Amino acid sequence: MVMERQRIEHALARIEAAAARIEAAGTRRKASQGTGEDSGLARQHEELRAKVGASLQELELLIGALEA
């Protein structure tokens, strides 16, 4: 039980770190939008952001099920 709890805590820490990296990338992206970058790239970024958000929600549900 303790090892499983540690695995879950480690997974949550990794997810939080990944979310922080994604957020930082988004902040950098917003800062560079005024430089005339390709609008297709902005669309791809938003699509990827939505997919990552959905994946994170899925992981939260799975981890919640493991904790129950």
Structure described in brief:
Helix content is 88%, strand content 0%.
Explain this structure.
The chain is mainly alpha-helical and 68 residues long. It has one domain. It is 88% helix and 0% strand. It is built from two helices and no strands. It has helices at residues 2-32, 39-67. The longest helix has 31 residues, at 2-32. The chain is elongated and about 50 Å long. The model has no long low-confidence stretch (mean pLDDT 81).
Number of strands: 0
**How confident overall, as mean pLDDT?**
81
Rg is 16 Å
The oligomeric state of the chains shown is single chain
Terminal CA distance: 12 Å
Question: Could you tell me the strand content as a percent range?
Answer: under 5%
Structural class: mainly alpha
Give a short account of the largest sheet.
Answer: none
Give me some keywords for this one.
68 residues, 0% strand
